[in-house]
Amino acid sequence: MATAPRVGRVIWVLFALGFMALLVRPVHSLAADEMPQEVRGGGVAVRVTLLTEEARSLRFRIEMDTHMRDLDRYEFGEIVRVRDGSGKEFPPASIERLMGGGHHRVAILRFPPPESQAQAVELLVRDVAGVPERVFRWSLEGSGRRGRTPPTGSSQMK
Length: 158
Description:
Elements: H1 3-23, E1 37-41, E2 44-53, E3 58-66, H2 76-79, E4 80-84, E5 89-90, E6 94-101, E7 104-111, E8 120-128, E9 131-139, E10 147-152
Antiparallel strand pairs: 1-2, 2-3, 3-7, 4-5, 4-8, 6-7, 8-9, 9-10
């Protein structure tokens, strides 16, 4: 009878892995531009993914995770900005989706499109968990091609 609990655990693990596979897209299927950038600090990890770059807008998925504090007090519309190559900053045009609470929050934000001559765009997340500014940067150079540069804790464009 000692095998019954073991079989139950194996079934539970297989069920959990199958459920997680339904929720998560495999990393190898993501294009390089869709890979999230992450900056950790103050016990909070902030991950940002550029979802679309088009003539009408920029869309980003912003995730905040922690095991140390409540993240509900942070308003995405107040702490997130986009900065263009000239240093001009823009608040989100809209918050399309807001999910989670407590230790895990996710938002999808839409911003005005960058100027047509912009070579790069930065997304800034300010004043979260004692970190004054987290900077996530994408290159917009080339004919419709964009790339990533590593995120930093401070600005690279100033």
